[in-house]
Amino acid sequence: MTDLSPALPVNGDRLVARLKALGQIGALPEGGVCRLALTPEDGAGRDLVVGWMREQGLDVAIDPIGNIFGTRRGTQDGPSVMMGSHIDTVATGGLYDGNLGVLAGLEVLQALDDAGIATVHPVTVAAFTNEEGARFQPDMLGSLVHVGDLPLQEALDTISIDGTRLGDDLADIGYAGTAALGGIKAAAYLEYHIEQGPVLEAEGIDIGVVEGVQGISWTEITLSGRSSHAGATPMRLRRDAGLAAARIAHGVADIAKSIGGDMVGTVGSLRLRPNLVNVVAEMAQMTVDLRHPQEKVLAEAEARLAALVARVAEEEHVSFTRRQLARFQPVAFDRDLVGRVEHTARSLGLSTRRMFSGAGHDAQMLARTCPAAMVFVPSIAGLSHNTAEYTAPGDIANGLAVLGTLALELAGR
Ligand code: HGY
Ligand code: MN
Ligand code: MN
Ligand code: MN
Questions:
Q1: What is the atom index within ligand 1 of the atom nearest the CA of 196?
Q2: Measured in angstroms, how far is the CA atom of residue 180 from the centroid of ligand 3?
Q3: Are strands 215-224 and 283-292 parallel, antiparallel or unpaired?
Q4: ipTM
């Protein structure tokens, strides 16, 4: 693997080896990874990463929401140059989503040691709790608590889709830390991540220079009808929560397609009760994920969803309740830092294109407290949140070189 970064001897092979080692924890039989937040698998993954941090002699701090920070001291104290992401995954996850940003940060710190470089500012690598939002909502929960925009107690009292309390699960895996919340300050935050979509691969571009993250709206809708016999109940007498949910799911796709452009809408979770072949469903619980880069358009989509749910519920004679699971406005990253990502990549001879992130990231929370930016590399077939998620070692090395070169520049020597 060519060493792209003359300034810092980062080692892409070592990074890929660590990605594979971490991917063994929660490995699925058919390939891929399942390390849902705050499960025993997440705990084991955390133990491995903290072990590597300690082997590298980093100062390890774990805060009360389980965010993990490994800091390499500078010749001066003060705010860190922070690199980070997450190591929790969705249930059909891969080796790279989140893990790449944490382990690449660790690799940069190792390379600084290998090169005997003393930086002026401290350099920190962070792994934030529950970025995915798969088991506990909202997503980016750990970084949102870190920046002070979600009260710790409210976060600890969050109930998972399995009915467990976040604070209890956190204690069970031994990561209810005691380090001061927000104690590790970032002067700048860099997140290295796979694109998770098809653009970079399709255009043959090495590095995505991420200008921001689109807005996210997650809603849970519970529809209540009446169970009845699938054979003996005439259609006109039914209060079919399953039919109502199916109509709403179809309507979500219609809203996204009628708005068009970058609008996306997803019904990812749909549960029926009693969920039996010969019973008209009495209850349906579904999630709706709406996203768009512009707040005004996202709000329009939300209004159309509200109208759709009310109309379908009335027509199908069911009642409904709604619960907002997450709501984040679009975020623009720091223009100067975005420019430095682009300049660094180009100075390394890499091709770049500017883009918005379709996925949410911890960087959008850190951006509330310091200049933040992201580095993307291609996802093969644009796949992520899929066990076939893959990014080639050469691409991993490219992004690592950009991250290491820029982090060293920001940390000073
Ligand atoms: O849903 C997201 O965008 C992220 O993977 N949490
Ligand atoms: Mn991610
Ligand atoms: Mn993800
Ligand atoms: Mn993310």
A1: 5
A2: 27
A3: antiparallel
A4: 0.91
